[in-house]
Write a structure and sequence with these properties.
This protein is mainly β. It is 3% helix and 52% strand.
């Protein structure tokens, strides 16, 4: 059961499933998988589930949730599904979506009372200024 799906607009699909990420070709053959995609530094601290993902510029963006503390991390993976960075979020966010035109990543969820925004500066994800 998939928890999220994204594509690269060129017939490559990315799926999230609980704690794993998968990359497929246009006919859904798995070409890359990371069945334990939650970084050890997070999984050892009760971060247990990957939410709804998005893809932009050879990177997968994924919210990783800790239901014990109602916090999250936004984890960035390269196209081979290796972690490149993570940003802690003091709220429980279950989805991310990128605005490709402004290079802004938005995050939210049913337990988050407002929309969070992050800017892409080069390859770095930083909180957007209000």
């Amino acid at each position: 059961e998939s928890t999220g799906i994204a594509d690269d607009s060129c017939s490559v699909w990315f799926f999230s499933k609980s704690d794993g990420l998968y990359r497929t070709d246009s006919v859904f053959n798995i070409t890359h998988s990371n069945e334990h995609a939650i970084p050890a530094s997070l999984s050892s601290n009760d971060f247990t589930e990957i939410g709804e993902i998005d893809f932009y510029a050879y990177s997968v963006y994924a919210p990783v949730m800790d239901f014990t503390t109602n916090t999250s991390a936004i984890v960035v993976y390269d196209a081979a599904l290796r972690v490149t960075q993570s940003v802690m979020v003091e709220e429980l966010v279950s989805w991310v979506a990128l605005d490709y035109g402004t290079r802004t990543l938005y995050a939210g969820g049913s337990q988050c009372d407002h929309l969070l925004a992050f800017d892409l500066h080069g390859d770095e994800l930083v909180p957007a200024e209000a």
